[in-house]
Design a protein that fits this description.
Chain lengths: ~450, ~160
């Protein structure tokens, strides 16, 4: 068994013309479909299980397992729906993949549709990615012209149609059941689970919802085999991961990493983020999209146990919420020493208030309340008791809502207070100064004492 | 009377064909996008009622959807809508300054339209372009890595478009 190259998804993203079918095919495209159609659908699910692939949409649920849960009642259609809603602040990797190498997603969709028995599959894309939807539609048309979609694909007896559906501006539609509601032409109100989509999904039929990157990763898994894929990375972080890096870095963009590099290398090496502009120092980072806990520089680069923190699922969450964070969606947001944690947290609270669907009172009321208090503190109008109040509110949201947006709104506030409480207090105690100055780096990059 | 052109009606029929028999409600979001484009950039009540009749829905089913999603405008907007992202990652890269600059340049506040009806300024939340911040959406396109100079050029570009008949 050969060790696979590090780049599996974006390896050809820079080949001129790769957006077009002919070039994609010349570079080895659709070989995965040819191979898959000669396999039994169950054998494909097995390969995906072996690969250890975990959902790239944020939750990291094993994809092979999810596929094997899909109910298969006689005479009832099953659906594959690709989640291209991508709206978590800091996350823009799916857009890159779809924009530059759309056929990779289409190829993955065909393989997954065949494996799951979906004859009509949908790509639900956020409405603002209007031109990306056009690119996908173009790619689907090309695939169809060349016999990879439609009736009896390549003589296999398998029929498959694929459609792109645009949303219309709602982060909550990235939550899988809200997405299905939206695809049915309704408001994006998440459904109560169970039943899970695998049993009752789109139009009440068994449905698998997967992220863009997850589905694209099926292509190299089928091409090279699940075991070869599982060889890349470490532990349960197999394969490669797309990271969208932004904030205060020299080279913002989308990077494909195998999950063996350290966070420090990712930020400072020229291959990736290229360090922080103007020689400034690192203050904090949200490593996995706005919903995951923010970490100060010291805990970001080293775990509380004093180990180098790595860019993988296990290492990023090492220490739990007390001293760790999460891989999440791979939205990597870097804050330099001149950034204000209170202001940044306020923008996130505003985001969640704006995006709450309003079904559950803890989320609907709590997000608005947190936003107001944070704005007060940011503007030097807060009280010390407000910090405790914020803590209380987020505690009351977490775990008490229909969908995880409530938790997603609570965690960033909790982590900001947990690690940066003194910055919040400084705002309260310096109501004038905080309008013109920032708290700065202070002790946030100091080495942490590790108990022997 | 409000009605789509033959061309658009064909497009609607094509969209409905994406779904199983009887599930034409699924076409609601795409059809509202078309309607907003066709009828002046916003969804007036008669437009929504028309969409309801096209898809055999109750008008309320259309209103509740139109009011849920941020891309649908329920009030008239200017010819060119600047939708500037203000969420964390964009803020880290100066989106607040860009918003202030646009306000000053166009002499309007957020949510307002210039008196000549040419420009509307909106602030929006993360558009999935955080690495190319600051940024805004303008119609179908994203304008990224914004600077004051770029804003000047965009305003000029839009003004030119509006001058050419
Ligand atoms: C508020 C919220 C927003 C979400 N947004 C997205 C999204 O934009 N894209 C995505 O793939 N998953 C998103 N998810 C996760 C989905 O619910 C779902 O877990 C995922 O699409 C499953 O695909 P995966 O297993 O391939 O990751 C979101 C979840 C929540 C709670
Ligand atoms: S947690 Fe928030 S977004 Fe999720 S269902 Fe409840 S109100 Fe809606
Ligand atoms: S924060 Fe502005 S595009 Fe993501």
């Amino acid at each position: 068994m050969q060790r696979m190259s590090k780049k599996l998804l974006l390896k050809n993203a820079n080949v001129p013309g790769i957006r077009q079918y002919d070039v994609y095919r010349r570079e080895g495209g659709y070989v995965g479909v040819e191979k898959a159609l000669k396999m039994q659908p169950e054998a494909i699910v097995e390969e995906v299980k072996k690969s250890g692939l975990r959902g790239r949409g944020g939750a990291g649920f094993p994809t092979g397992m999810k596929w094997s849960f899909l109910a298969k009642p006689e005479g009832v259609p099953r659906y594959l729906v690709c989640n291209a809603d991508e709206s978590e602040p800091g996350t823009f990797k799916d857009r890159y993949l779809m924009e530059f190498i759309p056929h990779l997603l289409i190829e993955g969709m065909i393989i997954a549709s065949y494996a799951l028995g979906s004859n009509n599959s949908y790509i639900y894309i956020r409405g603002e990615y209007d031109w990306v939807a056009d690119i996908l539609q173009e790619a689907i048309a090309e695939a169809k012209q060349n016999g990879w979609l439609g009736k009896n694909i390549q003589g296999s007896g398998f029929d498959c149609e694929m459609y792109v559906q645009r949303g219309a501006g709602a982060y909550i539609c990235g939550e899988e059941t809200a997405l299905l509601e939206s695809l049915e032409g309704k408001r994006g109100n998440p459904r109560i689970k169970p039943p899970f989509p695998a049993i009752k999904g789109l139009w009440g039929c068994p449905t698998v919802v997967n992220n863009v990157e997850t589905i694209a990763a099926v292509v190299p898994i089928i091409n090279e085999g699940g075991e070869a894929y599982a060889q890349i990375g470490v532990g349960k972080s197999t394969g490669t991961k797309l990271i969208s890096a932004c904030g205060n870095i020299n080279k913002p963009g989308v990077y494909e990493i195998d999950m063996t590099i350290s966070v420090e290398e990712f930020i400072y090496s020229d291959e990736y983020c290229g360090g922080i502009p103007n020689g400034k120092r690192l203050k904090a980072c949200i490593p996995g999209g706005s919903s995951v806990p923010i970490l100060p520089a010291n805990l970001l680069l080293t775990t509380a146990k004093g180990e180098k923190r790595m860019m993988n699922y296990e290492s990023l969450s090492d220490g739990g919420f007390a001293s760790g964070s999460m891989m999440g969606s791979g939205g990597f947001i870097v804050l330099d020493e001149d950034q204000c944690i209170v202001r940044h947290t306020y923008t996130l609270a505003r985001f969640y208030r704006h995006e709450s669907c309003g079904q559950c009172s803890p989320c609907r009321e709590g997000t608005g309340w947190m936003e107001k208090i944070l704005l007060n503190i940011e503007k030097g109008k807060g009280k010390i008791s407000d910090i405790d109040l914020l803590w209380d509110i987020q505690r009351k949201i977490e775990g008490n809502t229909i969908c995880p947006l409530g938790d997603a709104a609570a965690w960033p506030v909790a982590a900001a207070i947990r690690h940066f409480r003194d910055e919040f207090e400084w705002h309260v105690n310096n109501p004038d100064k905080c309008l013109t100055e920032n708290y700065g780096l202070r002790h946030y990059a100091d080495a942490i004492h590790v108990p022997a | 009377m409000i009605t789509f052109s033959k061309d658009k009606l064909d497009q609607v029929a094509e969209i409905i064909s994406h779904y199983p028999e009887g599930k034409q409600k699924s076409a609601l979001l795409p059809v509202l996008h078309i309607a907003q484009n066709e009828f002046g950039g916003w969804l007036d009540v008669p437009v929504m009622d028309y969409v309801a009749s096209l898809l055999k829905l109750e008008p309320i089913e259309v209103y509740e959807v139109a009011s849920f999603y941020s891309m649908y405008n329920l009030k008239p907007v200017g010819k060119h809508v600047f939708e500037v992202c203000q969420t964390g990652p964009c803020m880290l890269n100066g989106s607040d300054d860009i918003i202030d600059y646009i306000k000053q340049k166009l002499n309007i506040g957020v949510g307002e339209t210039t008196t000549d009806g040419l420009f509307t300024l909106k602030t929006v939340e993360c558009l999935g372009a955080c690495g190319y911040a600051p940024m805004m959406q303008l119609g179908k396109t994203y304008r990224e890595h914004l600077t004051k100079e770029k804003v000047d050029a965009i305003v000029e570009e839009c003004t030119q478009i509006s001058l050419t008949p």
